[in-house]
Amino acid sequence: MRCQAESLTKAVDHMSLLEHVAQQIRELRSNYNNGEGLSQENMAKHLNVAPNTISRWETGVYCPSLTDIEKLARFFGVTVMTFFPQDEVDVQDDKLLTLLRTARQLHPEDLEELTKYAEFRRARTMYQGKRRPKVGRKRKAR
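Given the sequence above, the corresponding structure tokens read:
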């Protein structure tokens, strides 16, 4: 029963993520060019995908790959994290505070690079539904 509950939770999380991605694509396309919007056909041409792919992304039928999300982010001039739900930030975390103190001392170009790297890593983890591997060697099954 517990495995079924965990599977259901993962499926619900994936659906809410897929719905969020779909909503963001719809909103960005609709608000493109100061609210004038952009047709699915024109957007498909710019991204070099089939027009029905855009429709399927926006309805959540298809899940865009991380490469597609990166293309979308570049096209709309937003970060990759725009396509993912925002997390609450716990500023009491010592590691996070250390990172923030260190980041404040970086040159603006280095800070931008660090931000993009962190967003990419977070997006990849969220999108694949995986967590970081545990430290140490994997044990052989007996």
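Residues 1-12 have pLDDT under 50 and may be disordered. Try to locate this feature in the token string yourself.
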